[in-house]
Design a protein that fits this description.
By secondary structure, the protein is mainly beta. Helices cover about 5% and strands about 40% of the residues. It contains 1 helix and 10 strands. The strands form 2 sheets. Strands 2, 4, 5, 6, 8, 9 and 10 form a 7-stranded mixed β-sheet that branches.
Length: about 150
């Protein structure tokens, strides 16, 4: 039993730490940004992978409950292998069933699923490569849709 607990804890994502509060010492950055913080690049995954994404200056909201666009609110899409998963929490589980290297892209979107843009007019994204082995996902039940 202890071996199983050690093996499971080795694959667990790091605890989510919200962004530090502004102390007023430096000018506040108000632009939305996004970064995939977990897993590490080319991490092995069997059947699925848990991603942890930071979204400074973007309040994650459920697009079903709050479909109307509102500044500073939205969610992100994880895009991979022609599929996508809309994610409304910092943690997001996706199904990865075909063996090989997957490039997973996180894209910040508004409540209406329209891509959010940075100051230069480009999409707010981050990418990560995951090394997938087919198998049964033992982390939960991931969902996905066509992109």
């Amino acid at each position: 039993m202890w071996t199983l607990l050690v093996a499971i804890s080795a694959c667990a994502p790091p605890p989510y730490t919200p962004a530090a509060e502004d102390t007023g010492d430096a000018p506040a950055d108000t632009g939305v940004s996004l970064s995939i913080d977990w897993p590490k690049p080319e991490t092995p995954a069997t059947g699925c992978a848990m991603f942890v994404v930071s979204t400074p200056n973007l309040r994650l909201t459920d697009h079903v409950l709050f479909p109307d666009p509102k500044p500073g609110e939205g969610h992100y899409h994880l895009i991979y292998d022609g599929m996508y998963t809309p994610c409304v929490t910092p943690y997001c589980l996706v199904a990865l069933t075909t063996a090989g290297l997957y490039e997973v892209e996180a894209v910040a979107v508004g409540n209406d699923h329209v891509e959010l843009l940075d100051d230069e007019g480009g999409p707010i994204t981050d990418t990560l490569v995951v090394n997938v082995t087919p198998g049964e996902c033992d982390l939960g039940t991931p969902l996905a849709g066509n992109y």
